[in-house]
Amino acid sequence: MLPDPRLPPQKLTPWRPEWGKPINQEDIAGAIVAFTVWDLEGLAKVGLDLPANDRDATRIYWQVIGWLLGMDEVLQPADLTDATELLAAVDHRQFRHSAEGTTLVRQLLAVPQSFLPRFLDGVPVWIMRRLMSPRFVRLLDVPRTGLLTNLVLTALYALLGHRALHRTVDHVGRRFLRGAQTAEGRHGDRGELRMPPEVESRVVRTGSAESPASG
């Protein structure tokens, strides 16, 4: 899901072909802070507002990934406020509608849909539209859910609030993990997904996960 970190900038001279392709720092920075900020915002929307230490640990986690990808230390956010401001700057300069973005959204939706019964195809779409800001729903041309699915899930959310969204996301997530563990690769081989024993026993094998709110 990360953008190609080695796309050559339009204006960078001199550059020797034997060096390979230069790293586009803005693309890396935008991806890293987007995952940092949007992951936390998405969790908050399903009622999982993490403590300050865990929020900062998320920033550091993505900061390490940025460093591994070659992200310049000057661009590394010092805190979550810094990350949010950097994301806003990249957003202003770069985020626009594109056919590639629309195609990617549909490909991403097709993954959880392939692990769900056909009649639940609209659930991942509803979750995406609920968690994503209206602006990005428009920019990425996220498809609409069917009328019945939208009415049922919206009614449940209105009645139960975060609990309904949390349970829906939890169910889809568990189905995703089970499907990912048994999915076939591009050449027909069974894909291999290794995960911590705690996740495998609680989410995949038992088919249920303890809610963080109840633990």
Quick rundown:
The chain is mainly alpha-helical and 215 residues long. It has nine helices and no strands. The protein folds into two domains: 17-94, no CATH class; 99-205, no CATH class.
Q: Could you outline the blueprint of secondary structure elements for this entry?
A:
Blueprint: H1 25-45, H2 52-68, H3 80-94, H4 99-114, H5 122-131, H6 134-139, H7 147-160, H8 162-182, H9 197-205
Helix pairs in contact: 1-2, 1-3, 7-8
Key words describing this protein structure:
9 helices, 215 residues, mainly alpha, single chain, 2 domains
Description:
The structure is a single chain. With 215 residues, the protein is an all-alpha fold. It has two domains: 17-94, no CATH class; 99-205, no CATH class. 60% of the residues lie in helices and 0% in strands. It contains nine helices and no strands. The protein has helices spanning 25-45, 52-68, 80-94, 99-114, 122-131, 134-139, 147-160, 162-182, 197-205. Helix 1 runs antiparallel to helix 2 (52-68) and helix 7 packs across helix 8.
